[in-house]
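Much of what follows relies on a compact textual record of a protein's fold. A complete example follows; check for yourself that the lines match position by position.
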Amino acid sequence: MDTDAGHGRYRYSALPDRPVFDWPRGKRLAVYIGLNLETFAFGAGLGAELAPGGPQPDVLNYAWRDWGNRVGAWRIAAMLDALAMPASVLVNSNLYRDCPGLIEAFRARGDEIVAHGRTNAERQGTLDEAAERALIAETTAAIAAREGRQPAGWLGPWISQSRVTPDLLAEAGYRYLLDWDHDDQPTWFATRGGGRILSVPYPQELNDIPAVVARKETGRQFADAIADAFDEMLEQAQAAPLVMGIALHPYIVGRPHRLRPLRQALERIAKRRADIWLTTAGAVADHIVAQTAEPR
């Protein structure tokens, strides 16, 4: 396919000009939760910060993040159980070692397991091609060994890609990638050798790291943004089918003062389940892959 200059992955396509289709059962809005389960090296590497970090080991911020795996993730799992909502769980493969039983608990819920690198203490896009290929291979093998099959989707640690990441993922057998927030519908990316890989929209606005850590929003403001986006997208989806993702991190929204407003926003969405497709990123990808239309 013809592609835009620069990235060479997809061509320009105006939303109103595209073919109209439905999600399963005639739904117009697909909603998925992307729950990030991450692990960070102690005393080294990258990590989101609650407060400006001091010398390593930065105990303040390390412990703040570690709370998410010990407490916050379990509270979120209980909330999703109560709301009967599925999730795409974006996992660092080192969590199998660092937090035994955590990923397994979400597997038992029937959630989709999505690859998210080895650890979030490293940035994928800074690696050379050989090192990046090795990262993908190691992560894939670790997840496949525990889950019994290769994950279909990938989100780069720190939402970081090199210029060849889509190529490497396609060559490694991945069906879709996240990372890109350039559209409200899935987009086919061209890959080298005439291949392709699907990009499923992954949110940067409805994402608690940019919202709370960068923009300093309160839990209530973040929850209100989710509710407002849902109401608006449900209306907009009558003209064109859309995808609404919600990106969450347990060490942020698992905190009691943020969990309560988040629960209220998700309850608002769950009450409209008859009107929407509550799903996973992988199911969205499967639906598009099954279509025969010319990729955008």
